[in-house]
Design a protein that fits this description.
CATH class: Mainly Beta
Strand order of the largest sheet: 1-12-8-15-6-4
Largest sheet: 6 strands, antiparallel
Radius of gyration: 18 Å
Mean pLDDT: 91
Distance between the termini: 41 Å
Helix content: 10-25%
Number of strands: 16
Strand content: 15-25%
Order of helices and strands: HHEHEEEHHEEEEEEHEEEEEEHH
Oligomer: single chain
CATH architecture: Sandwich
Structural class: alpha+beta
CATH topology: Jelly Rolls
CATH superfamily: q2cbj1_9rhob like domain
Low-confidence stretches: none
Length: about 290
């Protein structure tokens, strides 16, 4: 039995500070309003100590125990997670490549009674996240592997600059790196209608300090992020301790399943659901991925 198995949401989350079950209260409305303002302004908001401090060591231990289950494969990628096109102009940012060294523990290898699993599936938590992103409701991904994952960045590796496929991301740091492993992002560097290749190229060339923010995160902090339009990365991890973060993947639409190619890249395998859904992906814009 997990140490967190018998806990309720109110025991896991600091509900005095984050009244999830009272969205109509003055405190609940103020919390959501602040999150919306920050998401609109800079594409990101952080809720410090969302997990009660008394449970943060349980959070770390549970995720550390499953971290060895991650699929690890160093891959050469660009910011768009797409194959380099030889016809691209020489100065196109898609021609700049990096080594992606982060690994993922798939959802089917995360215990159902772990804190992150219980939080991911909680309807009150989902309603709160939807309110922050100004959405009517959220759906858990139907994908058996990528709905909830643990992202592992081992010492000496990094999660390089990239854009997300999803318009929004929900994540929680569960273990800090000993050194490095800083979340860096460029708020709204592109839009649904403009790739803004010039600024993206500046960041990749090391000339984008004016565009880049560095975000200090602590274990138990909840981060809401619009990663579709904000270039971002986790800087190289140094020292002897890996960086772990849980990623809670939701969609506005029910039944969302990842592509065969992307799923195999991230997890080293696919399931029958991925094969059955091949070719049915729906995109909300025409941006490079």
């Amino acid at each position: 039995m997990s140490a967190s198995e018998a806990l309720t949401l109110d025991q896991v989350v600091d509900t005095a500070r984050y009244p999830l079950s009272q969205p109509g209260s003055a405190e609940g409305r103020a919390l959501v309003s602040r999150a919306r303002r920050e998401l609109a302004a800079v594409g990101c908001t952080v809720l410090p100590d969302f997990i009660r401090p008394s449970l943060q060591d349980v959070l770390r231990q549970e995720c550390s125990a499953i971290a060895p289950r991650a699929h690890f494969d160093v891959a050469t990628v660009n910011v768009y997670n797409m194959a380099a096109d030889p016809d691209l102009p020489a100065d196109h940012p898609g021609r700049t490549s990096f080594e992606r060294g982060n690994a993922f523990v798939a959802r089917d290898r995360i215990p159902a009674d772990a804190l992150i699993s219980r939080l991911y599936s909680d309807e009150v938590f989902q309603r709160f996240i939807a309110d922050c992103f100004e959405l009517t409701r959220l759906h858990e991904l139907a994908d058996p592997l990528s709905g909830l994952v643990l992202n592992v960045v081992a010492p000496g590796l990094e999660h390089p600059w990239h854009f997300d496929t999803n318009e929004f991301t929900v994540s929680m740091l569960t273990q800090e790196a000993q050194d490095g492993g800083i979340f860096e992002y460029c708020p709204n560097i592109r839009s649904a209608h403009d790739e803004n290749f010039g600024d993206v190229r500046d960041v990749l060339d090391g000339q984008g300090e004016r565009l880049t923010r560095r975000l200090p995160l602590r274990p138990g902090d909840l981060q809401l992020f619009k990663g579709r339009y904000s270039l971002h990365r986790v800087s190289p991890v140094r020292g002897d301790v890996a960086r772990h973060s849980a990623i809670f993947a939701y969609s506005e639409r029910p039944g969302v399943i990842g592509s065969v190619a992307r799923t195999r890249q991230l997890f080293g395998r696919v399931e029958p659901e991925h094969l059955a859904a091949a070719g049915r992906a729906v995109r909300g814009d025409r941006l490079l991925d």
